[in-house]
Amino acid sequence: MRSTGTAVRAANRLTAHWASGVGAGTVFSAAGVWPLLALLADGAAGAAREELEEALGLPADQAGAAAREFLATLAGIDGLSSALGLWTARFVELRDEWAAGLPTGAHGVLTGDAAADGRALDAWAAGRTGGVIERVRAELVPDTSLVVASALVLGADWEVPFKGDLMPWGDCDRAGLTRTRPGLDAVSVARTPSGAVTVATVRGTNGIDVLLLLGDEGLPPGEVLGMGIGVASGELTAVSGSQLPFGKAGPGLRLEKLRTASPEPPAVTLSTVEFTLTADHDLLADPELFGLATAADGTPGHFPGISAAPLGLSSGRQSATATFSAEGFRAAAVTLMEMVWLGWEDRPEPPYETTRAYAVFDRPFGFLTVHRESGLVLAAGWVSDPTPFPEDDAPQGLSTPPGRPPSP
Predict the structure, then answer these.
(1) C-alpha–C-alpha distance, residues 335 and 337, integer Å
(2) What is the DSSP string of 346-388?
(3) Tell me, what's the pLDDT at 355?
């Protein structure tokens, strides 16, 4: 599997750099961060521009075009939906050259009401991800003046579905998945001086694959992910299953000769577990990784190519989720970069005055559904037990008989 294009290669490098510092039990999308960094670099100056160039892996004067190339690549992937949004306060005037590179219809307005604007961003995220991500945990404040965001949603149904099973996992059982398919090349093994990684490729019907990566015991998650990225991009060679030796061929992988009652082709039996991961990332917790240290230092003047306004980066966040099931894979990520107006003495006074009311329904209440034209009440009710906040539920059982996959 090889990726082409300057922007794709640069984004994959950011994925590898990010992966080098992550731990277990997380999910992230550098593909959701990279185009935002490119747009910031396109309008940055000085040290902020240089740091963003380093994180992007390409010159800042190419960043705007690369961002558009990258967004076009995303738009052409079957099974992937993507969106880019920009919101500015009414008094922030964007540079025409920078704004011209944004998708049509991407520009919205911040009202200055942090709570209301936060709800609007949550609604945007939920709408763009089909409700998979309902909140983006924006850190809006009254002087937030610019927000740029990306949303990605992808899905793939497996060419060969899995069957449910029980998978031994430490000292307990988990919801397992197993399947057998002809051919040996759905598995491969990559090796570096640090160790080996077994790669199992699960193919989707729409051209999206999921690579499952099992490293040598003790190999850090970042190295395992980095090796997988190298295999996916063609920068690291993996030995395919048909070329592997019999016996222990890689982490968790054995090749054996079996006797069968009738002729059967070589095949791979893959056993794994169902999983759902969610994570929230503070991009400014490691600002050097994303080239944002200077951009977020609290001083104005870093983004003259975006606007003449004294803007400074105040936060960068990502919310992500991924689910691997018997039928397929689903994932979503929403990334936000927020800027505030630095220097209140330079901020123009809003020219208008208004009154705003706030209604909070935080105890039992009734409702009516009314046909507007006739006034007909179509439904009515009383709300005393609203839907609880969703929580993860432990599996209650499996529809297939328990079993044990063969130990590699």
Answers:
(1) 7
(2) GSPPPS-----------S-EEEEEE-TTT--EEEEEEESSPPP
(3) 56
**What token pair was written down for 398?**
């499996």
Which of these, 395, 383, 297, lies nearest to 339 by C-alpha position?
297
- The pLDDT of 280-292, averaged and rounded, is 95
Amino acid, single-letter form, for residue 149: A
- Run of H or E including 274: none
Cα torsion through 135, 139, 144, 150, rounded to 10: -40
d(CA 403, CA 212): 22
Q: Helix axis angle, 221-233 relative to 6-19, nearest 10°? A: 160
Give the Cα separation of 203 and 180 in Å (integer): 13
Can you list the domains of the chain with their CATH numbers? 6-152+278-346 (3.30.497.10), 157-273 (2.30.39)
* Phi (first) and psi of residue 283, to 5 degrees: -65, -25
Residue 240: burial class (beta carbons within 10 Å; 0-12, 13-18, 19+): middle
pLDDT of residue 371: 66
Structure tokens at 261: 């009652």
